[in-house]
Amino acid sequence: MSPLKTVEDYFAALNAEDWDLMASVLHPELRLIPSGSRPRTGADKAIAMFQKIFERFPVHRDTPTRFLEADNTVVVEISFSGATAEGTEVAFDAVDIFDFDDGRIRRLSQWFDTAALAAALEG
Q1: Burial class (CB in 10 A: 0-12, 13-18, 19+), 43
Q2: For 106-123, what is the mean pLDDT?
Q3: What is the C-alpha to C-alpha distance for residues 100 and 96, in angstroms, rounded to an integer?
Q4: 50, 72, 106, 109: which could join 27 in a potential S-S bond, CB 3.0 to 4.6 Å?
Q5: Phi and psi dihedrals of 87, rounded to 5?
Q6: Helical spans, DSSP H, in the chain
């Protein structure tokens, strides 16, 4: 599978909370570097982090808006929209950088303005 198709499957899995599909695109030794949080190593730890985030944001949609592909790296601009369990709506732009090993996502760094998100959640 091409890196671009793998990234498309990643977003499909994320938006549908399809953890089996997510596990199929993540390398077992994935290195996840999320904005505003500690890095995680292992696909299982990344999936656990996503599940915890979606407890707080049961309404969520990551919409990729631009893809840049070079060798084994794909950079994606994203528009996130969602709502917290309490009904607070949030929206922000982000950038994810995917690196591949053996057809699966081996490293993922996520970038967005965590201070702006915190301010939006505080009201």
Answers
A1: buried
A2: 91
A3: 13
A4: 106
A5: 95, 5
A6: 3-16, 19-25, 43-56, 114-122
